[in-house]
């Protein structure tokens, strides 16, 4: 393949990564923005979504499309319930103290990961894509399913944006984010908003995982990379900024796709990690965020 | 601080060291080996405690300081033919340099950002080890030959692979770091660190250079952790990249939380406690990480001050 088509392929792969990353990072960013806590177990919610997708698709065992659609509905709901439970049982009792929640969510990370290992096993298992249509480009054929991931992710991002900016729920969420105590004074049920946001964040991650499972595989350790990448995206995009998160996800996804096609993946990761650490050190508010209050 | 309470505090710490010394002759073989390892890891936890417990800085990257000591001494022995004491000093030097650089950069941030930055530096450190796997052995690591782990002082030579020598060397390191920590936290510097933890703005307003004090805490903490890492390499003869992984940044946090943050003996108590809990649990189930996770959640929910924090509040108020 010549350089041009090669670059196009890398760009498409990067867009798929970016689409999934944007959803996962948006979940992390919402939780951080509204609740001011860092959810270290976010990657495990992603993993849980993928594992559940496999479980649902296998249990149904009918046409791949039906199994996939069922997974797309069931997996985020179950993950949302798990998140709600852990918010009720653990985070609320800690009064959302930032450092205590970090320690607690590290604990949740180990618990979920180990349960997945014990119940699901160490194997990586695939899920059949709902359809296997190939889009024929002039130089190569490209998986239609991968293109549909990009579309689905964009759709969900727009929906989230509409909910945040155009509905009462979004207004309540933004009010809580802006000033928790004032929101409470105006009779906003802050605790219920927190519970809802935490569940919503986990559901976004789970949804992203169900989308990615047909092209990667479900594995109990698959939560690690999305967690780090989501941190990176949220930091570069500015903590709690939706637009920044999407732009940063595009930036990271595309550069990851292109760089890892032309360079050694370890070196690419090493440089990316150091660059992001430096961004955080010298521009703590992120590239697009406003100064933290 | 009266004379009597000073004597009481030093007496208690001496007594702990004497008990640990006596255990060298009393413990059965299996637990003897386990305890030698625990003493080195408790030293690691003490280094972490200085920063997390006293200065109030939550780092999730301390595995890199431990690994700096580990690789600093391990690589010096393997490729440069260093002796044991020179390799130990090399490990300390690597830890000091790394913690100085990381401290200078990471301390520009605070709170959650500090945690994420330290985690990323640690991640970059692991990736560096993996990238240079030609020399570091990557995931498999390096095994230090027994012949290279003999300490010669004058005419006498000590074989660090012998169980009793290994235990006593670990105890010596532990005791030194314990008393240095005790001296630090009772000094003016230690009190400034606690003041920074409680209210950084006010401490700065009172005229203290909080950045310089925090940097000193990061470097001291890094050097203690590197000392533990270097000792681990020399005493147990294995250098591997899993010691630099994020898991080894979380374990000292767990040990310190369990034993009691900001108590001098807490890291030892916590390390012994968690090590034995996971050791006993892993004989029943392979899911020992589940125990670690549950322990973290339960500790932070019901015993945020740890075992010795509880003891201090209920019974012994003078516990440092």
- List the domain count of chain B as a whole number: 1
What is the first-to-last residue Cα distance of chain A? 51 Å
Number of strands of chain A: 2
What's the CATH topology name of chain B? ABC transporter involved in vitamin B12 uptake, BtuC
Number of helices of chain A: 11
Radius of gyration of chain B: 19 Å
Which of globular, elongated, flat, extended, rod-shaped describes the shape of chain B?
A: globular
| Highest CATH level, the class of chain A | Mainly Alpha
Strand order of the largest sheet of chain B: 1-4
Strand order of the largest sheet of chain A: 1-2
Number of domains of chain A: 1
Q: Which architecture of chain B would the CATH scheme give at its second level? A: Orthogonal Bundle
Strand content of chain B: under 5%
Distance between the termini of chain B: 12 Å
CATH architecture identity of chain A: Orthogonal Bundle
| C-alpha-based Rg of chain A, rounded | 19 Å
Helical proportion of chain B, percent range: over 70%
Descriptive overview:
The complex is a heterodimer of chains A (293) and B (320). Chain A has one domain (3-282): Orthogonal Bundle (ABC transporter involved in vitamin B12 uptake, BtuC). Helix content of chain A is 75%, strand content 2%. Chain A is built from eleven helices and two strands; from the N terminus they run H-H-H-H-E-E-H-H-H-H-H-H-H. A two-stranded antiparallel ribbon of chain A has the order 1-2. In chain A, a hairpin with a 4-residue loop joins strand 1 and strand 2 (141-143). In chain A, helix 1 (3-35) runs antiparallel to helix 8 (190-212), helix 1 crosses helix 9 and helix 9 crosses helix 10 (242-262). The mean pLDDT of chain A is 87. The mean pLDDT of chain B is 90. Chain B is mostly helical and 320 residues long. Chain B has a single domain (3-245), classed as ABC transporter involved in vitamin B12 uptake, BtuC, CATH 1.10.3470. A two-stranded antiparallel sheet of chain B has the order 1-4. Chain B has helices spanning 3-26, 29-54, 63-80, 84-106, 112-131, 133-136, 163-186, 188-198, 200-205, 210-236, 247-259, 266-284, 288-302, 306-314; strands spanning 142-143, 150-153, 156-159, 238-239. Chain A binds chain B through residues 38, 90, 93-94, 98-100, 102-104, 106-115, 117-118, 228, 231, 235, 264, 266-267, 269-270, 273-274, 276-278, 280-282, 284, and chain B through 58, 60, 105-106, 108-109, 111-113, 115-117, 120-121, 123-124, 127-128, 130-131, 250, 253, 257, 287, 289-290, 292-297, 299-301, 304.
């Amino acid at each position: 393949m010549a350089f041009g088509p090669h670059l196009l392929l890398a760009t498409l792969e990067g867009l798929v990564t970016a689409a999934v990353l944007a959803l996962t990072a948006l979940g992390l960013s919402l939780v951080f923005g509204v609740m001011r806590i860092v959810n270290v177990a976010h990657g495990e919610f992603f993993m849980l979504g993928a594992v559940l997708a496999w479980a649902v698709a296998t249990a149904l065992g009918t046409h791949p499309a039906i199994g996939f659609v069922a997974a797309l509905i069931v997996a985020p709901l179950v993950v949302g319930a798990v998140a709600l439970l852990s918010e009720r049982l653990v985070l609320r009792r800690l009064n959302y103290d930032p450092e205590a929640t970090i320690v607690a969510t590290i604990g949740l990370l180990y618990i979920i990961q180990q349960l997945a290992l014990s119940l699901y096993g160490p194997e990586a298992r695939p899920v059949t894509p709902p359809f296997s249509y190939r889009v024929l480009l002039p130089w190569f054929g490209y998986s239609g399913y991968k293109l549909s991931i990009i579309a689905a992710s964009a759709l969900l991002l727009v929906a989230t944006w509409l909910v945040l900016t155009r509905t009462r729920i979004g207004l309540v969420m933004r009010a809580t984010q802006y000033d928790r105590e004032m929101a409470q004074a105006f009779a906003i049920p802050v605790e219920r908003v927190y519970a809802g946001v935490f569940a919503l964040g986990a559901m976004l991650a789970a949804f992203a995982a169900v989308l990615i499972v047909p092209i990667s595989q479900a594995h109990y350790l698959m939560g690690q990379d999305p967690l780090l990448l989501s941190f990176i995206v949220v930091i570069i995009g500015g903590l709690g900024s939706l637009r920044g998160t999407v732009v940063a996800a595009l930036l990271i996804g595309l550069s990851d796709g292109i760089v890892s096609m032309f360079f050694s993946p370890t070196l690419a990761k090493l440089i990316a990690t150091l660059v992001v650490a430096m961004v955080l050190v010298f521009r703590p508010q992120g590239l697009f965020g406003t100064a933290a209050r | 601080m009266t004379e009597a309470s000073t004597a009481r505090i030093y007496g208690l710490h001496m007594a702990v060291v004497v008990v640990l010394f006596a255990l060298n002759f009393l413990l059965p073989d299996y637990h003897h080996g386990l305890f030698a390892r625990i003493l080195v890891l408790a030293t690691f936890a003490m280094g972490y405690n200085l920063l997390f417990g006293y200065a109030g800085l939550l780092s999730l990257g301390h595995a890199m300081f431990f690994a700096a000591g580990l690789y600093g001494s391990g690589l010096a022995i393997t490729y440069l033919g260093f002796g044991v004491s020179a390799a130990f000093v090399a490990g300390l030097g690597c830890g000091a340099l790394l913690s100085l650089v990381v401290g200078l950069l990471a301390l520009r941030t605070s709170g959650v950002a500090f945690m994420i930055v330290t985690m990323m530096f640690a991640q970059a450190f692991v990736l560096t080890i993996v990238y240079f796997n030609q020399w570091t052995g990557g995931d498999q690591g390096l095994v230090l030959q027994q012949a290279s782990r003999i300490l010669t002082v004058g005419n006498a030579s000590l074989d660090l692979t012998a169980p009793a020598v290994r235990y006593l060397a670990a105890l010596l390191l532990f005791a030194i770091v314990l008393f240095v920590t005790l001296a630090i936290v009772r000094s003016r510097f230690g009190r400034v660190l606690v003041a920074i933890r409680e209210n950084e703005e006010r401490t700065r307003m009172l005229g203290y250079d909080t950045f310089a004090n925090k940097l000193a805490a990061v470097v001291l903490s890094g050097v203690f952790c590197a000392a533990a890492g270097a000792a681990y390499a020399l005493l147990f003869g294995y250098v591997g990249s899993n010691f630099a992984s994020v898991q080894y940044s979380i374990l000292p946090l767990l040990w310190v939380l369990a034993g009691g943050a900001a108590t001098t003996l807490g890291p030892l108590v916590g390390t012994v406690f968690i090590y034995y809990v996971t050791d006993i649990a892993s004989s029943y189930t392979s899911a020992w990480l589940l125990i670690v996770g549950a322990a973290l959640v339960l500790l932070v929910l019901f015993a945020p001050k740890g075992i010795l924090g509880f003891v201090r509040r209920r019974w012994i108020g003078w516990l440092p």
